[in-house]
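User: Let's play a game. I give you a shape written as tokens, and you guess the letters that built it. Ready? Here's round one.
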């Protein structure tokens, strides 16, 4: 596949890294010569210096032969114009744009992105995606990661195995005997920095980061089997009143009448603006690194402190200060991939990575075959994928235990006619089933082949 990416920031780099690693033909455009040099030195991609919305720059990047144009610069208007130029002058089949300003996405302007206006095929709004991830984390305080599939019917949940975890040191094939009504399928395990697909005779160990798949209304019960019975908190402090912080606060007001939310914003003007819109949230103007403002926000009694500013270091430090003061749980927004392990070692309970969320959203539309959803896990070492099984798929019609196609893959759930089913060895996949599975990074191409239409691909 030939892909042109506009923007070599964290998101653009992450997309280029994944696609180039899968032997796609990738060109990346950025106005900064330094960024282009850095990307081309680290990745097998073609770099072009210039504005991604300029026709001559797109032409130099080879957009006339591109299957996809992905515009993820820091400026919405550049992303939109790049897609318009790619459509009007170069007839690019698929255009993807990151759009952050919510006014463009308001329902009354929904016709703006029609084919006759601004022909953008896929719009990614990272603020909403990240905000929804934060809200899911709040609803499942025992989880380290959460992802939804099948319109919310299926949840993929990451959880740490602590010393009190009841299922450690037990072969997975015995778990169904010990817990015959276990409402989850374990699909991935990260141990000492290595990601693996567990086999039936494998055992979990203390310190493992485990990912399981469950029906949405069974997740809390599944978490309790791993020793996590944490109750969602109602006293919440949010650091940062930007787009994400405002979205989380407004949605908590709308969805949870019992929530008591306080929001700290450094900019006085921004604090006044959101205070006029939010009805039940207490908005404070101040520095989240100052003890006095955290005390005023009631961090000592808070169930959860969420740091959502644009500065990773402020997010980490404010969370640690909040925990020292008495916050029961802390969650930080971390843009830098390398900060995640560092933050966990410092005691931050959970983190959200906007780059990983945005990259996952793009990959959903890059993947070939009947792929319905994608989310990268564990620093990109694997992906959760939802795909539709077709009549031509070798998965269909045979018990899973008889298939030799699943090395490096693990099916977590099947959605059939709206019903969520957890597969066992004798389970038979049918045509048109939606399959939610985990795949190691080097097995992604195999997944695409399993869910393509024609037989000649197998």
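Assistant: Ready! My guess for every position:
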């Amino acid at each position: 596949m030939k892909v042109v990416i506009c923007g070599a920031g964290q998101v653009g780099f992450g997309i280029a890294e994944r696609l180039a690693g899968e032997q796609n033909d990738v060109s990346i455009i950025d106005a900064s010569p330094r960024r282009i040099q850095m990307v081309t030195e680290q990745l097998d991609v073609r770099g072009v210096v210039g504005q991604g919305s300029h026709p001559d720059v797109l032409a130099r990047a080879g957009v006339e032969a591109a299957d996809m144009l992905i515009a993820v610069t820091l400026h919405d208007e550049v992303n939109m114009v790049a897609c318009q130029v790619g459509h009007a002058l170069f007839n690019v089949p698929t255009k993807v744009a990151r759009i952050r300003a919510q006014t463009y996405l308001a329902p009354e302007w929904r016709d703006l992105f029609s084919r006759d206006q601004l022909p953008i095929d896929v719009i990614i709004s990272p603020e909403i995606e990240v905000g929804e991830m934060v809200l899911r984390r709040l609803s499942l305080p025992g989880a380290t990661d959460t992802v939804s599939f099948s319109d919310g019917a299926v949840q993929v949940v990451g959880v740490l195995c602590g010393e009190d975890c009841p299922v450690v040191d037990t072969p997975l094939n015995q778990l169904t005997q010990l817990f015959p009504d276990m409402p989850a399928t374990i699909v991935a395990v990260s141990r000492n920095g290595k990601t693996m697909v567990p086999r039936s005779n494998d055992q979990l160990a203390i310190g493992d980061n485990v990912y399981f798949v469950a029906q949405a209304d069974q997740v809390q019960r599944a978490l309790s089997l791993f020793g996590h019975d944490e109750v969602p908190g109602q006293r919440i402090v949010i650091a940062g009143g930007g787009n994400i912080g405002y979205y989380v606060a407004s949605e908590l007001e709308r969805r949870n009448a019992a929530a008591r939310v306080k929001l700290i914003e450094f900019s006085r003007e921004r604090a006044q603006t959101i205070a006029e819109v939010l009805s039940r949230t207490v908005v404070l103007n101040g520095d989240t690194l100052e003890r006095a403002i955290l005390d005023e926000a009631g961090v000592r009694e808070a169930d959860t402190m969420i740091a959502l500013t644009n500065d990773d270091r402020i997010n980490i430090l404010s969370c640690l200060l909040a925990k020292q003061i008495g916050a029961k749980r802390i969650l930080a927004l971390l843009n830098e991939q390398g900060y995640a392990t560092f933050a966990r070692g410092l005691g931050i309970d959970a983190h959200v990575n906007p780059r990983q969320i945005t990259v996952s959203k793009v990959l959903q539309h890059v993947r070939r075959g009947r792929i319905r959803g994608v989310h990268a896990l564990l620093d990109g070492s694997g992906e959760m994928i939802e795909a539709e099984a077709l009549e031509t798929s070798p998965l269909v019609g045979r018990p899973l235990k008889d298939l030799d196609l699943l090395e490096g893959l693990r099916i977590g759930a099947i959605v059939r006619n709206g019903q969520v089913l957890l597969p066992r060895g004798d389970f038979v996949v049918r045509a048109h089933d939606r399959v939610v599975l985990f795949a190691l990074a080097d097995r992604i191409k195999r997944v695409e082949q399993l869910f393509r239409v024609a037989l000649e691909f197998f």
